[in-house]
Structure formats: structure tokens, C-alpha cells
Design goal:
By secondary structure, the chain is mostly helical. Helix content is 66%, strand content 0%. Helix 1 packs across helix 2, helix 2 runs parallel beside helix 4 and helix 2 crosses helix 5. The longest helix has 18 residues.
Length: 98
């Protein structure tokens, strides 16, 4: 699956109103997952994703190699809250032209 198809699937399945929202949700989710798992697993997971999308995992894994933020699994609500916070921050960022 390529990048555009992946983001289109996220947009459709999550019922999001724009591709930008789907991009933000994808990035926020993967960055949050990367905080919670060892860097080696992040790299393995990133390799299974379309080019560019997997970089969200690798970027966070690089900053915290093999030291997940928590020792345990977060509660589902905590995970969703963290993803939501990240997605809102990314929506406020100016979009890069290029």
C-alpha cells in the first residue's frame, strides 16, 4: 500500500473530514505508539508501513532508544488523550510548502 492509499484509508475509517486531519491523526498515533515500545520494535513496525509514514515511529524511537516512556501499557483513555493532544498540536502548526 502506498502513502496516499494508507492516508485515504485512515481518513475513511476514522470518518475524518480531510486528508490533513488523517495525516495528523496518523502521525500522532504512531508517535504515541513509538513512545511506548522499544526502538527496535518501532523500527520493525516502521518497515511495514508506507515510506514516509514509518518515519513517525523512527523519529520518536531515535530520541528515546529502547527506553519506552512507561514500563507498562497505558490505559486506553490515556493513549487516546495523548494522541488527541498531539493531533491538535500538529493542526496548529503552519503547513510546510514544498
Amino acid at each position: 500500500m502506498d502513502h496516499d492509499t494508507f492516508i485515504g484509508q485512515v481518513q475513511a475509517r476514522a470518518g475524518l473530514d480531510s486528508r490533513d486531519a488523517a495525516e495528523a491523526a496518523t502521525r500522532a498515533t504512531l508517535e504515541t505508539v513509538a513512545e511506548r515500545i522499544p526502538a527496535s520494535l518501532s523500527d520493525d513496525l516502521a518497515a511495514q508501513l508506507p515510506q514516509g509514514i514509518g518515519e513517525h515511529l523512527r523519529r520518536v524511537a531515535t530520541t528515546t532508544p529502547d527506553h519506552p516512556e512507561t514500563g507498562g501499557r497505558p490505559k486506553f483513555r490515556e493513549f487516546l488523550d495523548r494522541v488527541s493532544q498531539r493531533a491538535r498540536k500538529s493542526s496548529a502548526r503552519p503547513r510546510r510548502e514544498g
